[in-house]
Structures are given as structure tokens and as C-alpha cells.
Amino acid sequence: MSIQKFRVGIIGADTQASWAGASHVPALQAQPSLVLAAVATRREESARAAADAFGAGRWFADPYAMIEDRDIDVVTVAVKVPAHRDLVMAALRQGKAVYSEAPLGATLAETEEMATAARGAHTAIGLQGRHNPSVRRAAELVASGKLGRLMSARVGATTFGYGPQTPEVYDYFNKSAFGATFLTITVGHVLDVIEAILGPVMEVDARTELLWPEIEIVDTGRISVRDTPDHIDLIAKTQSGAPVSVQVLAGIPPQDAAFSFEIRGSEGWLRLTGNHLAGVQVGDLSLTASVPFDAPDAPLATGVGPTAAAFWAGAAINVGEVYASLGRDLTAGTYDTPGFAHALHNSRLVATVERAAQTGQRQVVAD
């Protein structure tokens, strides 16, 4: 029996500095029920080049033309956050399944609008860290009760981004108005991994800092102003009962990148570790524990896009797990993949963390 192939079109699959090219393209190549059918950018030259490099059958210089094409079943939105809303809403109006990078909207209001419009549709949000096989196994281990009563958890996370220097193409991450900040991206991903294992965050106390208010743009030499925090310390109470202390450091040299998530219970402990320079959501993770557990499943996708820089190695692992989940949903008619409602939850959680930091007072998380 042949497996139905759902045809995916990626908006933003450029061959230059493209997250989609580094992660989404090789992730799709590993899927039994999904196939890369088309790519779209804003220019004919880049769209043609991307289709040729990534093996897509078709290319579009107008993303909306691809969205309207009847031969596309799934639209992946992998462009800058301010452009998400119009593209996502257009895809939902066409009845397409939609996979959007996180954060979903440039503002909480945009995210709420898209989450409301997506009710009843198949959607996926790019909070891919929770899909990592080791994260899934850690969640199962916690739920099994083998660790006993959960007493505490500690997270240390880093990213090479949001430091004192950046190329011009990434300067928009330094501007809160664009919605793609240290809090909404880096901290949002870390919090989502915590919730995947320990359950929803119920209360949070946080402190943020702006360590590098002036940023050197390395390819032009100009100085840009960062208006959003680039460091955070927080303490959270989770539904599991375990309090979590979290520190997220930005601007770390690539060779010093590290992620560690340690959970201690009355009967044992577990630890998740990783070292991808871009953060916990990008690379693979390793799981160790003081109690026995089944080895995590092997990731479905392990390659890297043909035009990707070497530092993106491993970027397809977690994205591949998102696509695998979405493919199962599309095939079976289920809705198990965390989608836009989950994106809204994450955005509200980040907003609560930011409010806690601004007020200096513990905040209750309301969803």
C-alpha cells in the first residue's frame, strides 16, 4: 500500500543564511508522508536557486501565489516574525495546514488572532525542543514516578546570539518592535522544554538585564542600539511541584555553549545536556539518570541542508520530529501536534515572565 504524500511549500527557503534551508529541508527529506514540493521567496532569482539547491519541484517569487496553489497541502512559514501574520492568515483562509516558526506573532495580539483563526486547522509551531527524543523520554521518566517526589530542578542555558556583535542581517533581533527577541525566542524555547517535562509553569519570579545596549554590526562597522534584555534569571513553580531555577546567558563563545537541565527527586535524578551554540531547540540532547530508563528513540532526521553553514549541524533533528508528528496527524486526521494554541500559551508565558521582571513581583501564570 502506497503512503499518501502531503505536499509542503516552504516560504523563506533561501540558500543564503536560511534557517529553513539548514533545518526544514533535510527534515522533510526524512519524512515518509511529507514531501518538499515548492519553495517561495520574494525574488525570482533566489526562488529559482532554492528550488534547484533543495530539490523542490516548483518555485514561486510570490509567496501568496504558492499559498493559493491547489497542489500545496502544507505551508511552512520560515521568514522574519513581522511577516508571519499576513502569510499565516492567508494560508489558513486557503484551508492549508500551517507550520510556523516561533514566535508565532510579533505581538501577543497577533498571536491571539492567528490562534483563533486556526481553530479546527492542522497547525504546528516551531517550538521544536520539546519534540527531541531525549526530552520526550525525560518526560516519560518523570511521569513514571521513578524519581520519587520531585524536589527541585535547575536549568542553565546559553546561546551565541544576542551578544555584543552581530551581522546586519540579524540586527532585527535586537529590536523589541520586531517581536524576535531574546525573551520571545531563546527564553521561550527554554521555558517550553521545561514545561514539556515538568508540566505548566504556575508562578514565576524573574530578573532581566541588558548587558550590551550598544551592538557592533560587524559587516558595516556601525553601532546599533539593543532595546531588549539579553540576560535572565528566573525561578518558577511548575505543576509537578518542582521549583525550577533558570539562568539563560547570551553572547557565549560558540566553544563554551552548553545546556543543562537537572531534576532531583526523593528517589533519583535525571540530567539533560547539550552543546549546540544556538540553543537547546537546535541540536540534539543527551539523557542520563540514576534510575533505569529505555534509550530515547533515534531521531528521524540527522542531516543538514546542502547550503547550510557548518554550525547548523543537527538543526534538522528536532524540526524533523515536528514534521513527523504533523505528518501523522494529517494521515490519521488527529490533532496531537502542538500548534497555534500552544504557541499562544508560550507567548503568554513569556509575557508573564517579562511582567515579573518589570514589576519585581512574582506573577501567577494565567492561560
Automatic annotation (TrEMBL):
Coiled coil: none annotated. Signal peptide: none annotated. It comes from the Bacteria. Residues 6-123 form the Gfo/Idh/MocA-like oxidoreductase N-terminal domain. Keywords: Oxidoreductase. It holds the Pfam family Gal80p_C-like. InterPro entries: Gal80p-like_C, Gfo/Idh/MocA-like_OxRdtase_N, Gfo/Idh/MocA_oxidrdct_glycsds, NAD(P)-bd_dom_sf. This is Predicted dehydrogenase. It comes from Aureimonas altamirensis DSM 21988. The lineage of its organism: Bacteria, Pseudomonadati, Pseudomonadota, Alphaproteobacteria, Hyphomicrobiales.
